[in-house]
Amino acid sequence: MTVFDAQAFQDDIGVSRETLDRLAAYESVLRKWQPRINLVGPSTLPDLWRRHFLDSAQLHPLLPDGTRVLVDLGSGAGFPGLVLAILGVPEVHLVESDSRKAAFLREAARVAGASVTVHNKRIETVTGIEADVVTARALAPLADLLGWSFPFLGSRGTGLFLKGQNLDDELTATTKYWKMRTERFESRSDPTGTILRVSGIERGETDHG
C-alpha cells in the first residue's frame, strides 16, 4: 500500500498549510503519549494519517450546513472529534470517561490550538448540551449510540457514525427501538468501512435501555 503521509492527506482533503501544521502537532503529541497510554492500535501507527486523520476528516463534508455544536462520544485519542474541531467546527465537546485519555485530549487540543471542551465523564451523565451533530467511531452498536445521542440531538439533529462490516445487522436490530432516516457513504480510509448518517431520530414503540 502506498504510504499515506501528511502531504497525501493535504492533497486529498485540501486543508491549508496552517491546518496541516496543527494536525501535525496533534500527531506529534499522540506519538509521544502512545507508549504510556494505548491511544490507538499499535498496528495503525505506521498508517496514522490514513487510518485516523483521513478517517476522521472525511466526515467534515458530510456535516449539515450551519453545524455549530458537535458532541463526540467516546473520544479516546480524539478521532474524529478533535480533527473536526481543527477543521473548523465552532463548538466541539469531547466525551471521554478514561481520565488519562481525557488528559491527553486536553494536551493535544492545547498543542493543536483547538478550542474544545473535554468532558471526563460517562456519556449518560453529560447533560445540558443541544448539539447539531453527534459523532462516534468504533464505540458501540448503533442502538446504543442512538440511545446516547438522542438526549443531545432530539429528532432535529444528525448522527455521523463510522461503522464496520456488521452495519446491516446493527440496523436490523435498531429498528425495534428507533425510527430514523439513514444514508450510507463509502469510507475513503477503510475499504470495509461505512459512514452512516442518521437524522429524524425518534423512539420506536419498544424503548431501548
User: Which class of secondary structure composition applies to the elements?
Assistant: alpha/beta
The main sheet comes to:
7 strands, mixed
Which stretches are poorly predicted, pLDDT < 50 over at least 5 residues? none
How big is the Rg? Answer: 16 Å
Order of the strands making up the biggest sheet: 3-2-1-4-5-7-6
What would you say about this model in short?
The protein has 209 residues and is of the alpha/beta class. It has helices at 6-13, 17-33, 48-57, 81-86, 99-112, 142-153, 167-174, and strands spanning 69-73, 91-95, 116-119, 133-137, 158-163, 178-186, 194-203.
Give an account of the 3D structure.
The protein starts with 5 loop residues before the first helix and ends in a 6-residue tail after the last strand. It is 36% helix and 21% strand. It is of the alpha/beta class. The mean pLDDT is 95.
List the defining traits of the structure above:
single chain; 209 residues; 7 helices; alpha/beta; seven-stranded mixed sheet
Task: Give the secondary structure arrangement, pairings included.
Elements: H1 6-13, H2 17-33, H3 48-57, E1 69-73, H4 81-86, E2 91-95, H5 99-112, E3 116-119, E4 133-137, H6 142-153, E5 158-163, H7 167-174, E6 178-186, E7 194-203
Helix pairs in contact: 1-3, 2-5
